[in-house]
Amino acid sequence: MSKLSKAKRDKRKKQAPRRPFARLNAQQPVQNHAVLVNEEGQVVAAIGLQGNEWLLAIGGQTMGNADNPVPMLAMLKHLANVQEKEGRKVTLEYSAALQQMIDDLAADEGKTADDYLAGLVAEFEGVEGEDAAEATDVVDVAEEVPAADADSSDDKPKP
To answer: What's the whole-model pTM score?
Structure first.
């Protein structure tokens, strides 16, 4: 190899046009199918389709993905119900494709789409109620434990 070969190679590299990096996992665009919007017009949460994977985004960050978006839609509907109970006005809009999926799943179970979706939302409300009941049980137990410790403090050996 000659001493000038490196200089020639460097010169050739500088003159060559820039090529973009080939991305191994090139991101496909996300198509929004359900959007939960607050009264200021800000997107609170959304469900989108990227390739053949459904994504759930809350607060601008992707929180999860799934093959079936219907449970995620039920979760957004539950979130909208909770927001409305707290006095905030939110709107949930979803695409015709997502509505068709709900219609098909509801028809398989012999229900209307509204009844089917309401049943899924009720599952989220049931889980929330169970968590609240468990939390009160834990508080009750926590209140009892210090009382038991207070009784045993009188039994300390005297010096």
So the answer is: 0.62
